[in-house]
Design brief:
Oligomer: heterodimer
Structural class of chain A: mainly alpha
Number of helices of chain B: 10
Number of strands of chain B: 14
Radius of gyration of chain A: 19 Å
């Protein structure tokens, strides 16, 4: 295992995060605060709580997931697409690094950043609503696994994309709608039966539901099923990424 | 016989669009040699380097670096290889120091501040170590690329057009670095458009054209073998007729009869000029002035590429 290479890639990517600290950390915090002001205070005050939880507290897990998904994808896809675009990727391709090392370096750094953002949003939310986390250990694990899974997805996207436009198409046309319709702002119980069934095909539902269980002890969907889904998603992304790097698809000519 | 550092066997590359970039290339470069690959644009030079460094997948054939196959033993092989690409592709926002240190890490080596300093100093980059790469001039960026390729102490170095667009000072610095590496036993393959560069520093040259290796030969013997030397004699009084004694040199007389051009092959003993002058003297032809002209590698190269295409 080329540990030095993993460290080099990780440090390089984290340096980028810290260089753009304001944009990286402050922007998601501001966005989340706006959500709280609009949904939590302005609209939420007129809404009844969901179960025993106030609406403001109910949306916290969903808001964190929303940011973690978009940040993971955005950060990891940029991390690999930028060198592809500028040509500096020649160095990575000519270095003695394996798929595992490349993934651990790039995806590890993107995951770290997303987890940091998730925790900062969590801390911010306590300023707006009284919050309890029933299963903090599981909450951290879920945060980590989700950040890793979608960083991996973003990494794939960065290799797949042949232009900057393509890089933004998938997050804005696929991920954002899925995230918004994934039960971040409402319980699936409020949906008519037909829409509830349709919603179950949305993978984000499982993430948000499981994550919410960590906070409030109540999930919309079966916990085991959710964990199986997340594991399957990670396995699929890993398989595709491994094939991409080994074959050199859109990397080597 | 020195061990072979770079062993290329029957290498071919056909791109998806159908372009045959390399056709059955075989080439062995011994350890510690400076080898210059010459060829026109699109001849396949960069593709060859790309396959050796893992940027391009070969269609068939193999490359071994110090005995390690670059495809099946990529980890061992690539550790031994340094690459300076043709394009100025450097990180933008990192400092010179961070960019170079990053390269060392990628190749699996622990940070080594004294090695880093030595490489940066050898390329006159030490004073710029805290400058962002994007703020450097083109020549300085080229130096950074070289530093990045050297900081992991490669055994085989590929330089793709190292002196394209660089000033005289940098070119001299690059040559010094290359010679210094060769003295340490590093094997160097460089591609170049500047024939002068090959003449100056390469032990052997290879000429590649349309994906085929047209010729591989020691630089000096190639110039000797293929090169022509001409002796131009300016005469005191016009010559009406060429003396028969001059026939071996295939002389050509100018229209005014005042200038005589004689041809030599390069592989002559060195006494031939004296012999020619003696012949002229015995024929009572007075010489006012003389000059010699030697064909450069460039002319040989143009001849070769023309004759093969």
């Amino acid at each position: 295992m080329n540990i030095e290479a993993i460290k080099a890639i990780y440090r390089f990517e984290m340096a980028r995060t810290f260089r753009t600290m304001v944009q990286s950390i402050l922007a998601p915090v501001l966005t989340t605060s706006l959500y709280f002001i609009v949904f939590g205070a302005a609209i939420g005050s007129r809404m009844t709580g969901i179960g025993e939880v106030s609406y403001g507290a109910f949306i916290v897990p969903g808001l964190i997931m929303l940011s973690v998904l978009t940040e993971s994808i955005g950060n990891a896809s940029f991390g690999i697409h930028m060198p592809k675009w500028s040509g500096t990727i020649f160095e990575l391709l000519s270095a003695p690094v394996s798929t595992t090392e490349i993934v651990l370096g790039y995806v590890g750094a993107a995951t770290t950043k997303s987890v940091m953002i998730g925790l900062v949003i969590l801390a911010t939310s306590t300023l707006f609503v009284p919050l309890q986390v029933l299963h903090p250990g599981w909450m951290l694990l879920m945060l980590l696994v989700t950040a890793f899974a979608f960083s991996l997805f973003g990494f794939m996207l960065g290799i797949w994309a042949t232009s900057w436009e393509k890089l933004t198409i998938v997050p804005s046309l696929v991920i954002t709608p899925l995230a918004f319709l994934g039960g971040s702002f409402y319980s699936l119980d409020v949906l008519p039966p037909l829409w509830r069934t349709v919603t179950l095909f949305n993978p984000v539902v499982y993430l948000v539901s499981t994550f919410r269980w960590c906070f409030h002890g109540k999930a919309d969907v079966n916990l085991i099923g959710s964990i199986a889904f997340i594991a399957a998603f990670v396995a699929l992304c890993l398989a595709i990424t491994t094939w991409m790097i080994r074959s050199g698809w859109r990397l080597r000519s | 016989m020195r061990p072979v550092a770079l062993d290329i066997q029957s290498l071919s590359k056909t791109y998806k669009a159908g372009h045959h970039a390399l056709r059955n290339i075989s080439l062995q470069i011994p350890r510690g040699e400076i080898f210059a690959l010459l060829g026109p644009n699109g001849a396949g030079k960069t593709t060859l380097i790309g396959i050796a460094c893992g940027l391009v997948n070969a269609t068939s054939g193999s490359i071994h670096i110090e005995g390690h196959n670059v495809a099946s033993e990529f980890r061992t092989a690539r550790k031994l290889v340094g690459l300076v690409p043709q394009e100025l592709t450097t990180e933008a926002f990192e400092t010179v120091q961070a960019a170079v240190a990053h390269s060392r890490g990628l190749f699996g080596l622990q940070p080594n501040p004294s090695k880093l300093e030595q490489v940066l100093r050898s390329l006159a980059l030490w004073d710029k170590r805290d400058t962002r790469v994007s703020q450097l001039s083109g020549g300085m960026k080229r130096r950074v690329l070289i530093a990045k390729a050297l900081v992991h102490e490669p055994r085989v170095l590929f330089l793709d057009e190292p002196s394209a667009g660089v000033d005289v000072e940098l070119r001299r610095d690059i040559w010094n670095v290359v010679r210094g590496l060769r003295d340490q036993g590093v094997t160097i393959l460089l591609t170049t458009h500047y024939i002068e560069e090959a003449e100056q520093i390469a032990d052997r040259v290879g000429v590649i054209n349309k994906g085929e290796l047209v010729l591989v030969e020691e630089t000096h013997s190639l110039i000797r073998r293929m090169g022509q030397r001409q002796l131009v004699l300016n005469l005191v009084s016009p010559l009406q007729q060429l003396p028969a004694a001059l026939a071996p040199w295939a002389p050509a007389l100018s229209a005014d009869g005042l200038s005589l051009r004689c041809n030599f092959a390069q592989d002559i003993s060195g006494t031939e000029t004296a012999l020619l002058l003696q012949t002229l003297s015995s024929a009572a032809i007075a010489v006012r002035d003389l000059q010699t002209q030697q064909s450069s590698l460039e002319e040989i190269f143009v001849q070769l590429v023309r004759s093969k295409s």
